TrEMBL record:
It is an enzyme of class 2 (transferase). Its EC number is 2.3.1.-. InterPro entries: Acyl_CoA_acyltransferase, DUF4081, GNAT_dom, UCP21603_acetyltransf. It comes from the Bacteria. This is GNAT family N-acetyltransferase.
Amino acid sequence: MGVRVLGPRDLSAARAVIARDPVINVFVDSLIQSSGLDPRRGAEVWGYVDRGELQSLCHAGGNLVPVEADDIAIRQFAAYALRRGRNCFQIVGPARAVQLFWSLVERQWGPPREIRPDQPFMVIDGPPAIEPDPRVRRVEPVELPALYPACVAMYTEEVGVPPQTGPDGTFYRSRVAELIRTGRAFAWIEDGQVVFKAEIGAVGTGVCQIQGVWVEPSRRGQGIAAPAMAAVVELARTIAPVVTLYVNAFNTPARAAYERVGFHTTQTFATVLF
């Protein structure tokens, strides 16, 4: 019984853990599919093993994300994390797991920059309930100079600090460019300016997750978000039939827009930001 760093030989067992709830676990599923559990190709993934069986996972990169972790597994992950030290900039996942993990590491890892304890995790698995806005479309690679500033603005507004760009200033820009290249960036661009945008930040097994939803500040309150999100859902469902997102409970306009589109809440997430 205990925690260890997983490797490629553990991929099948790790995927079986994720498959218990592929919708909730879409973010880590996407990362594991990309890395194949090779730490050289991505972040570490820790596994909690009990009686020789892999029971739970914890993605331990910039985002620390527990997966299918009960209280025993969380306590084991927290003890392991305290020995290793904090490398993440946020802890995120199902609220109960995040809150217990945080309570166990807070004395050594605190204080946080912010705690968001109530983030509805929302799902839609069919066509949008309202007419999509046809002006929202996939972003073309030549439009990176228009999209990138909007992505930086969204990130800074949402997270509270600018995105980490890396020593050469290209890391975040490269991430945005990759989303465009893979057809996972969507926007309404008018006269070279982004009015609305969103991306598919994770693609798992039959599930994808929308991230980075943003409306240009001067256009807010005009009813843009819901039809635009309906268009994103239509486009996203060409990638995976089930579409997810999570949102801060205090963001009532966004929640109302998502509900108009047809999203419903299935779980509560929480995030601890450093």
